[in-house]
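User: quick one, sequence for these tokens?
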């Protein structure tokens, strides 16, 4: 029967790799190879480094624009500040991935292959409920990967929508004001930026294409790096949650009649082994995302603040700017929402664990059985949290706090703008 479990996991592996094909391509475009095992000297990392350098040049041009508009109302620089913060998030993630993408590969393919369920041991025991347990495991895995698919698709669409609007709206605007309705206007780029040495050349060759390329790379990095870095988080955290759910389902049947009395201690030990594997997997995920998530939370809070401010004034001043802010609100809000929503799934499942271990009729079992249950109840009594660098946790409560804090800063910014 263990061969049937391996066949199930192999079937899921093929389905999962096929489902993640677009995700693999987007990741490769950012210089991150998570489909195959990469060494530290992998040539794809040269592309990663090139994108980082070009994005930093584009970021410098954005700060030139902010400095040039320092005497103007805040609304003139809000778009540049908002996109620059998002660019910082993506550049920091790219730099991080440059050095540790092999570790992300291990975490991702542990989820894709379902390797933590290999050699589980339960299906080698003399029990009568193997078919039923296999069906339950398959249902949980199917539901978790369907959830992963929906999250990835919606998040990818949101990021590409925001980046695509910035990427192509500037071309139409420049063409319209240059050829259809000529008038004095500021040359637009995929990201609001100012290159002082080329500012007076307008759309002439090759100055505008160079500016477009630099800011276009920076713009695309904002979307593709978010999909890559946060997409990995979606896959591995939802899978970790599914492993806990599988464990709880197995514990429901530990005292069933289909499991002979002589096999129950072995069955319980297999469940304890699965818990240990899942806990180690959770620790690796938490260690990889603990520090980067702090930068994500802080910068996302600032972006949300500026977005709410510009959405408040944009409809009256510039409908294009208003649409841009809505795109960023959707993308940035989803970024922090992904961390908190999926982090909450881990919290919810880990809170169930002590009850799942204690709910069996352990009082009718052997002393060894009781001892294992007592030890596991003590071990699982501590709730698992995806931490944000020791300051807070990834949870729905944290998400509400970030939105509330962003709203407070928005009101402060609005009042200061009114004073000006």
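Assistant:
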């Amino acid at each position: 029967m263990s061969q049937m479990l391996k066949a199930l996991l192999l079937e899921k592996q093929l389905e999962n790799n096929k489902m993640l094909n677009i995700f693999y391509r987007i990741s490769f475009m950012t210089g991150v190879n998570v489909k195959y095992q990469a060494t530290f000297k992998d040539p794809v990392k040269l592309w990663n480094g090139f994108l980082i350098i070009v994005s930093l040049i584009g970021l410098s041009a954005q700060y030139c624009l902010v400095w040039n508009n320092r005497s103007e109302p805040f609304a003139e620089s809000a778009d540049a500040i908002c996109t620059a913060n998002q660019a910082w998030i993506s550049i920091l993630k790219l730099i991080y991935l440059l050095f540790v993408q092999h570790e992300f590969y291990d975490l991702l393919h542990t989820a894709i292959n379902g390797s933590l369920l290999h050699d589980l041991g339960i299906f080698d025991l003399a029990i009568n409920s193997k078919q039923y347990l296999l069906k339950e495991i398959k249902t949980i895995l199917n539901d978790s990967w369907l959830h992963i698919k929906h999250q990835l698709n919606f998040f990818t669409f949101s990021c590409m929508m925001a980046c695509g609007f910035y990427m192509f709206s500037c071309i139409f605007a420049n063409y319209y004001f240059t050829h259809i309705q000529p008038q004095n206007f500021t040359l637009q780029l995929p990201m609001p930026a100012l290159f002082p040495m080329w500012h007076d050349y307008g759309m002439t060759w090759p100055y505008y294409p160079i500016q477009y390329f630099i800011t276009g790379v920076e713009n695309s990095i904002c979307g593709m790096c978010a999909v890559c870095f946060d997409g990995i988080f979606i896959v591995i955290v939802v899978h970790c949650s599914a492993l806990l759910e599988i464990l709880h389902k197995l514990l429901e049947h530990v005292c069933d009649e289909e499991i002979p009395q002589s096999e129950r201690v072995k069955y319980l030990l297999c469940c304890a082994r699965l818990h240990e594997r899942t806990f180690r997997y959770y620790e690796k995920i938490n260690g990889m995302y603990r520090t980067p998530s702090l930068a994500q939370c802080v910068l996302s809070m600032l972006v949300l603040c500026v977005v709410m401010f510009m959405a408040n004034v944009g409809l009256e001043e510039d409908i294009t700017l208003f649409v841009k802010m809505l795109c960023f609100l959707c993308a940035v809000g989803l970024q922090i929402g992904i961390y908190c929503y999926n982090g909450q799934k881990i919290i919810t499942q880990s809170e169930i664990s002590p009850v799942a271990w204690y709910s069996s009729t352990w009082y009718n079992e052997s002393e060894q059985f009781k001892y294992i249950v007592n030890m596991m109840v003590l071990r699982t009594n501590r709730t698992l949290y995806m931490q944000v660098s020791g300051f807070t946790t990834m949870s729905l409560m944290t998400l509400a706090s970030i939105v509330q804090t962003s709203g407070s800063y928005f009101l402060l910014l609005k009042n200061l703008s009114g004073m000006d």
